Amino acid sequence: MNINLVKKITIGSLAGGLIGYLVLHPAFLIIDDYYFHGDFKLLEIFLSSFSIFHIQMVVFFIIFGMVNGFLYGFFNYRVRFLIEKTRIISITDELTQISNRRHFMNELEKEIERAKRFSRNLSLLILDIDKFKYYNDTYGHIFGDKVLQSVARSLTETIRKIDFVARYGGDEFVIIMPETEKTMANIFAERVQKKFSENFFENKKIPLKLKISLSIGIASFPNDVKTADDLIHHADTALYRAKEEKRRQGEFLITI
C-alpha cells in the first residue's frame, strides 16, 4: 500500500476517533441524563468526560477509529487495485502484452477527434509479418508465438512516446502516430523495416537464425480520409498493395 495513503488513513482515523468521541460521547451522556432525570447540566456532563474512565474511553475510540479507518482504506485500495487490474487486462493482448484491438479502436477515435479539434495530422500504420504461416507450419505455434512477442517488443522499443502500438489480430499490428504527416510516417516505416532486415530472430530450441520481414500499409488524416473506419480501410488497402508488390518481386523467400 502507498505510504502516503497509510499516513492519510492513520491521521484521518486518529482525528475522526477523537472528534467522534468528544462530540458523540457527551451527546449520549446528555441524552442519557435528560432521559432519566428530565434535565441536564451541560458543563458538568462535559467535564465528567475527562475522568480516568472516560480518558480510557477516548483511547478506545481513537484505536477503534484507527482500526476501522485502516481497514476501510485497505479494502478501498484493494477494490480500486482490482478494478484497475481488470481494466488493464481488458485492454491488453494476452500473448504480446501490448494493447489489444478494442483499446486500439478507442484510442484511434480519440486521436481522430483530437486531430480534428486542433487541425493536426495523424498517420496510421498497419504492419503484417511476411509469411507468418510458414513459421507456424514449419516450427510450430509456440515458435510463432515467440515471433509475435519479439515483433511486439521491437515495435514498442522503436515508437515515440506519443505513438500507440497494438496487436490488431493474428500477425497484424497497428501504430497510431499523432502529429505525423504521411511523409514522416513513411520514413518511420522504412526505419522499422530496416531494423528487422538487419536482425535475426533466434530461438534456443531451434538451431537456426531467421530473418523476419514486415509489410506496412500507411494512411493519413486528413489528407487520405476523414473518419477512423476509412483510415483503417485505407491503410489496410495500402498493406495489401505492399504485399502484392513483394510477391511480384519475389521478396517473400524465407531467409535462413
Describe this protein's structure.
This protein is of the alpha+beta class and 256 residues long. It folds into 2 domains: 3-90, no CATH class; 101-249, 2-Layer Sandwich (Alpha-Beta Plaits). 64% of the residues lie in helices and 15% in strands. The chain contains 8 helices and 6 strands. It has helices at 3-37, 42-48, 52-90, 101-118, 132-139, 141-158, 182-197, 228-249, and strands at 122-129, 164-169, 172-178, 200-203, 206-211, 214-221. The chain has a 4-stranded antiparallel sheet, with helices on both faces. Strands 4-5 form a two-stranded antiparallel ribbon. Strand 2 (164-169) and strand 3 form a beta hairpin. Helix 1 (3-37) packs across helix 3 (52-90) and helix 5 (132-139) packs antiparallel against helix 6. The longest helix has 39 residues, at 52-90. It starts with a helix and ends in a 7-residue tail after the last helix. The model is unreliable at 252-256 (pLDDT under 50).
Features:
256 residues; alpha+beta; Alpha-Beta Plaits; 2 domains; four-stranded antiparallel beta sheet; two-stranded antiparallel ribbon; 8 helices; 6 strands; 64% helix; 15% strand; elongated; disordered C terminus
